[in-house]
Write a structure and sequence with these properties.
Structural class: alpha/beta
Strand order of the largest sheet: 4-5-3-6-9
Largest sheet: 5 strands, parallel
CATH class of the largest domain: Alpha Beta
Order of helices and strands: EHEHHEHEHHHEHEHEEHHEH
Bound molecules: zinc ion
CATH architecture of the largest domain: 3-Layer(aba) Sandwich
Number of domains: 2
């Protein structure tokens, strides 16, 4: 088995490199294709994994990674969360996306949330906490999770502690992304998002291949309401006042890992692997 090489195709296989950590199979490459399940079956890799997982003293042998992303708006939390998700095969839980969905669907939560989001203000905690609590009652986070955009305030952090305790979970890392205001304003005002798949672009540093359209799914790109310059300044103010104090809280627990927000994208995986192991 040692020296076997598995070539990976696509996001469906994200879980595998994580399951295979410390295991003598080399994993190479990440490419888009939905047929990976068949490819894996053809290679017999699923069986290998199943045997390996069952053979480790009843445990999966997987190291849990329960992560909170913390940093000002525009510091690249979402991007870094996706990279961590790809490396370790754990899901990103994005309250921002969940809220936007609620707004789009016009649910009761969504209607209230919309007014706050359009002003660049924080959505009331009881709404956000309710959404997160619901998510933690659903499957898919047994091997860890990455919270992006939550908690954003002391009372949300209190609620998160409660939710984690209810689910016999705890946090392993806080990834704190460090970046200055000037860079943030430049970055956010030139940011474009895909309303369909959530992909993020930047007009200068990460333009889509076809102007105005998503590389991944072909949908038309938008500038989100909360990426307008005036709204950005308000968001930075709100961050300083409400979210930044959380750093003290988690520093006391020894959970914080700092990542610079201005490194090149392709350097991030190595930085993150060095930090988290
Ligand atoms: Zn897309």
């Amino acid at each position: 088995m040692s020296g076997t090489t598995l070539v990976m195709y696509g996001k469906a296989t994200k879980i595998i490199p994580r399951m295979m950590r410390n295991h003598p199979i080399t994993v190479n490459g990440l490419y888009g294709s939905n047929d990976i399940r068949h490819s894996i079956d053809d290679l017999g890799i699923v069986n290998v994994l199943t045997q390996w997982r069952g053979s480790e003293s009843g445990q999966s042998g997987v190291i849990l990674m329960r992560i909170v992303m913390l940093g000002p708006p525009g510091s690249g939390k979402g991007t870094q969360a996706r990279i961590i998700s790809d490396i370790y095969g754990i899901p990103v839980i994005t309250t921002g996306d969940m809220l936007r969905e609620a707004v789009a669907e016009g649910t009761e939560y969504g209607k209230v949330a919309k007014e706050y989001m359009n002003r660049g203000d924080l959505v009331p905690d009881d709404i956000v906490n309710g959404i997160v609590r619901q998510r933690f009652s659903q499957p898919g986070i047994e091997e860890g999770f990455i919270l992006d955009g939550y908690p954003r305030s002391t009372s949300q952090a209190d609620a998160l502690d409660e939710i984690l305790e209810e689910n016999n979970q705890k946090l392993d890392y806080i990834i704190h992304i460090v970046l200055g205001d000037k860079t943030i304003i430049d970055r956010l005002s030139k940011r474009r998002s895909c309303p369909n798949c959530g992909a993020i672009y930047h007009l200068e540093s990460k333009p889509p291949k076809k102007k105005g359209y998503c590389d991944q799914c072909g949908s038309g790109l938008i500038r989100r309401e909360d990426d307008n310059p005036d709204v950005i300044k308000n968001r930075l103010e709100v961050y300083r006042e409400k979210t930044r104090p959380l750093l003290e809280r988690y520093k006391d627990r020894g959970l914080i890992k700092e990542v610079p927000g201005d490194v090149k994208l392709d350097e991030l995986p190595d930085i993150i692997k060095k930090l988290l192991g």
